[in-house]
Amino acid sequence: MWIPSRPCAMSKGGRRAMGGILLAAALAGAFVWLLYAFQEALIYHPLPSRIAVRDELPAGVEALQYTIEGPRRERLRQESYLALPTGSAGSKGIRVAVLFHGNASSALDWPEAAGYLRERGFHLLMVEYPGYGRGEGEPSPESIELASREAFRALAERLEVPEQELERRTVAIGHSLGSAAALLLASDRDLQQVILLAPFTSSMDLARRRVGWPLCLLLRHRYDNRSLLAKIVDRQRPPEVLIVHGARDDIIPPGMSRRLAEISPAISRVELPEADHVTVVDTSREAILDALSDAK
């Protein structure tokens, strides 16, 4: 007959080692849970609106207010901004630049950064994201896409121009996180041009670089710029696409935008040797103006 052996008593050293293993496992589990549950705070860094403490807007700038549907079908109030042109567009009529800011920025950073576009007759639609500025709700790929669509619709109503007509007079310009927002808008609209400043290939690629595998699989906020861009340039009448990246960018490696440019020979790419992730916004001015002047 088989008789089970009496369990051996664990030595003090063994108990200490087992306790260390259990503690390490608990800490690792807590880290994974925190990474999954609070990744919004790691991904997005919203700034309050610059007019949160004062009610006046910069000269020539007005608010566009609209709502989007939230995750529980509630209506969430949003506020983006229209900067009127300070110069003439000449014979080209109404021209629009839809501007999407980077992560730790706000829509009202654009009037100064893109003032040269206003001087050339562009209306600037400066899109604010849900959870940023005065926007209600939380940022996500879905809410940012909804907000950009509704902001464009509000602009068309304000300018009294049909949306489809306005699309072909529009360039979308996005920096960093804003590059994903610009592509989300371009995937839904027949735009004239798309200009991406310091774009990334996908949020999964960024997560893999920062937290490694398999933790990157916990990512819930999926932006896939590579797939979106491939679909956009494959259209019968695609927009012209320009990518600008700083060679000194240590946030989003320039190699990511090189891979995006390899999607199609129709995509133009400029690498600025002295620019980093932040300064690319200001130093890309010449490349942007060249692209706009060559627009068909």
Key traits:
296 residues, single chain, 8 strands, Rossmann fold, 12 helices
Short description:
The protein is an alpha/beta fold and 296 residues long. The chain contains twelve helices and eight strands.
Secondary-structure topology with pairs:
Layout: H1 12-37, H2 39-43, E1 61-69, E2 75-83, E3 95-100, H3 110-113, H4 115-119, E4 122-127, H5 141-159, H6 163-167, E5 170-175, H7 177-186, E6 193-197, H8 203-211, H9 225-233, E7 240-246, H10 254-261, E8 268-272, H11 280-283, H12 285-293
Parallel strand pairs: 3-4, 3-5, 5-6, 6-7, 7-8
Antiparallel strand pairs: 1-2, 2-4
Helix pairs in contact: 5-7, 7-9
Distance between the termini: 91 Å
- Apparent shape: globular
Indicate the low-confidence ranges by residue numbers: 1-5, 22-39
Please trace the helix and strand order, writing H or E for each element: HHEEEHHEHHEHEHHEHEHH
CATH superfamily: Alpha/Beta hydrolase fold, catalytic domain
CATH class categorisation: Alpha Beta
Strand content: 15-25%
CATH topology name: Rossmann fold
Approximate helicity band: 25-40%
Q: What is the β-strand count? A: 8
Please tell me the overall pLDDT. Answer: 84
How many structural units, i.e. domains?
1
**Radius of gyration based on Cα positions:** 24 Å
Using the 3D structure, state the CATH architecture: 3-Layer(aba) Sandwich
Side by side, the strands of the main sheet go: 1-2-4-3-5-6-7-8
Helical stretch tally: 12
